[in-house]
Amino acid sequence: MTEEDKTAAAGSAGTGPVEAGAGTGNAGTAGTADDRPVYEIVGQYLHDLSFENPNAPMVFSQMSGAPRLDVRLSLKTAPLQEDLHETRLIMYGHLKNGDQTAYIVELTYAALTRLRNVPQQNVQPLLAIETPRLVFPEVRRIFRQAVMDGGFPPPAISMVDFVDMYRKNMQRQGEQAAAGDGATAGDLPNLKMDLPEQPR
Hints:
Elements: H1 3-10, E1 38-52, H2 58-62, E2 68-79, E3 84-97, E4 100-116, H3 120-149, H4 162-178, E5 187-196
Antiparallel strand pairs: 1-4, 2-3, 2-5, 3-4
């Protein structure tokens, strides 16, 4: 990602542009490299991976009909240092063949994001929308690979609308705040999807 792309990303996320030099007291003066908005993913890694195949090997001969795959996705963000944040995507999948469990897979994937000179109202959208959008393809790849390594066909998992997920979370937090039940900033609710299993 070029410096121009990072600057544009830091000023986006649906909250309006961030101009270089804003907040420096030098109206009309182009910002220097030190005060330009910076958004960059400086690292990403697999934090945890678990795959359970509790009914093997009999499950492979008993698969019939249309197995049901329940996939849940949750997201958490946390500050690590002044300009460094962690975004974690937790993906859980449970395939059932009738009442029998075929497999259970759960993985946690994390990305480290550096933000500098970004307005506070832009921080959470960048961490909860842009960062997961960029790393989700890798999360999906690891999930599918784990399933294939377990002897099952890879599931078809669509791209997630993180903008919609974020908006629903903000709405939920607003409703909880209005009801006097405080929501935890940075925690997004589970996104539940019913995804068809590819035929064997």
